[in-house]
Structures are given as C-alpha cells and as structure tokens.
Amino acid sequence: MTKFADDIRKIVGVDRDQSAAPTLEDLGGIPSVRGVGTQSNGGASSSTVSGTGPDSATTDSGYTSGLSTGVTDLNGSNTLNPNNQNSFIRDALAGKFSAADIIDGTAGPSMKTSNLDTFDGTGFEGGSLSSITATDCTSGKDLDIRTDGLLVPPEATLWPDGSTKTNEWTDPNTPPDTVGFVQGMYWGIDPGGGQQQAKDPQEAAGLAKTYLDANPAGGDTPPYTITGVNQSASMPTRYIVGFEVLAGASNRTFTIQTNSESCIGVPPTDPADCPASSKETQWPEDGDISLTYVDGKFVGSVYDSDITTEFSGQERSHVSFCMPGGRFGVIRAGRDGGTVIYETDTKGGDPKADTTARYYDKNGALAGALPSSAYQTFLPPGDS
Fold first, then answer.
1. Of 273, 305, 322, which residue is a domain's last?
2. Which structural domain, as residue segments, surrounds residue 355?
C-alpha cells in the first residue's frame, strides 16, 4: 500500500481497501491505437501509434503513469479514416470539458476508487480527457487546449445563403484549394467600373464588394453584404455573386456574374501571371485559439487565424488561463507525456490553497490527484 494511495483516499474519502489487490506487474497489456495530426517546430507530422500496455511502471514517487487504456476514436469506433486524420473527431464532443469543471471535479474522467493502488485503465467512468476549454486572460478569446496531440481546424465556412465560402481543411497542415479555383483560368467581374480579374470566384466577389462600397449606387447605403457565391447550374464556368444593401428604408438584393476565361494570351493578363494554384492561407475564423500538446510542449498552428502573438510560434511547457468568476488556472506538462491541471490564485501565480491538482496520463486517463501545493509530484524530473 503506497503513501500516494493513502493520500488519494483522504481526498476522495475512500477507506483503506483491506482486500488483496493486483500489483502493476499482474496487469496484462491493453492494446491502444491513436492517429494524430500535429504541429511541431512549425512543420507538419502525422502518424499512427500502436502498442501494448502496460508501457510504464510505478515511479519512485508512488504513482502509476502512462498505462495504455485501449484508446478508441471519439465516436466510439476503432476505425479511423486514413485519408482524413480529423474525420474521427470532427463532430465529437467526447473528452472535451471546461477547465473549471475539471478543476472543480464536477466533470471529466473519474478515477477508479475501488483499487487506488493499481490504475489499470479499466475503471475510468468518464472516459478520457482530450481537451479543455477556458479563456485567454489577455485577449479574452476562447482557448481550446487539446491534450491528445491533435490539431482540429474549424469546419468549412458558408455564405449566408448556404453556398461554400471556404473549403474544409481535411488535414490541419495542408491548405485546401480556394472554392472555384481552376488552374490556367482567371475570373472576370465588372461591378460597374470595368472588368477586374481574380484568381477564383471568391476573390472576384471581394473585388466587387470593394468597388461597390467605394462607389455605391444612388440610394444605397454601404456596406454591401455578399450573400452567396454560387456556381451556375447551366454554365459551370460562371458563378453568381449575390449582394444585399440597405436602400432607403429597406434592403435590396441583386447579383453580379463572374465568368472564367483562359488567362493565357488574353489581355491585359500576362501569361506568366497565371496562378498555378490558389490555396487557403489560414483556417476559417471561429474565435478560438487552438493549442495542442506535443512532445511535452503546448503549441499552436501557423494556420490558426485566431491565434495571438502570445502563442504564435511559441512552444510552452504550461499555459495559464482564466475561468468564470475571476478565477485562474494552469495546465502543465506532466510526467511520461501526461498533463497536470490545477487552480492558481492569480494568472501564472501559486497554486490556490485547498484545491486539488489532477494528473492525466498520456492517454487522457485520470491517474493521480493531490493537493495543488504538491503539483510538482506530477511534473517531469527536473521541472518545477
């Protein structure tokens, strides 16, 4: 019986179990598999990792970490789509909890209490932790901090009429083509001041809006709103751009056509200017700063349109955050690829008295809990 287990019993109110309990060595291996898309040192990497647990042992600090827990995808299936590393989590909420609920112990994975000496990965009623949500204290934006090494871009965005504005990023590090781009073609549009050329229908719509906002028709009150960019059903080389604007006491709607033409040898376009490709440069905006935990560091994506200078291009061993009610917390790199979460008295300050630090192993299973003042127990050797 370890001192750590006795400490846990004091926290969760469980009496010492007098029955014989299997040791870590008695536990059999539990297969695990996980597909990941990660951002590391500004580059992309993806892999599928499989193994048989246990893949760690009880440490000299008296707790068990890194035990394989039989990871499945978050939709409850073991089958991942190899052509879309994010497909298995795109619509899933499993494993995602607010930081405040995790810290307060009102939600999140539950630790097995019938046998606190052997965290065998089979008694975590709440499943595993994949991400926490909180607020960035500096910008006020929402924080989505993943603990599973995944980066999950927002879904495709739509115009108000439901037409596609930006394509879906099926890989977090591979920008998709812009909607309507055709290699070797340009898109001409004339909103009233002569034809302008764009590399795709979306850019053409933006050029038209810029012109109209600066040169409104009589009775119109800018700005003009793009309501949709739709491919013509009868003429695929044509897109119809919808607009809406305040005209007097009510809104009026109208459309402008943009047509594709070869940009080779067609004045005034130089053939050398024909775009070879047209890719999205950033994820669609969703108001969330997305971070993920890779190799002991919390990192963001170079493509995240919402990331701030505080996180852009940075690798951090911990991230401080704000919670409702003027509260603060931190998530830190933990031992053996795990993470530690606890409340602080200020942003980046000391652990708050009479609170609990929780340690999650690399598979997101709750594998330890101690008073927050003892959070260093769960840190990698040499960290403080």
1. 273
2. 3-154+283-378
Say how far apart CA 6 and CA 14 lie, in whole Å: 9
Runs of H (alpha helix) within the chain: 3-12, 99-104, 201-214
pTM of the predicted protein model: 0.68
Asked if pLDDT for residue 252 goes beyond 90, the answer is yes
Rounded mean pLDDT, 224-235: 96
- CA–CA separation, 152 and 147 (whole Å): 12
Q: Report the side by side order of strands in the sheet with 238-247.
A: 196-198, 185-189, 250-262, 238-247, 220-231
Taking each continuous run of H as one helix and of E as one strand, the counts in the chain are 3, 20
Q: pLDDT tens digits for 55-107?
A: 333 333 333 333 222 223 333 333 333 344 443 344 345 688 999 999 998 88
Where are any strands of DSSP class E within 173-287? 185-189, 196-198, 220-231, 238-247, 250-262
Q: Does one domain contain both 27 and 135?
A: yes
pLDDT surpasses 70 at 13: no
Rg of the chain over Cα atoms, rounded to whole angstroms, equals: 27
Pair 258, 182: CB distance under 8 Å: no
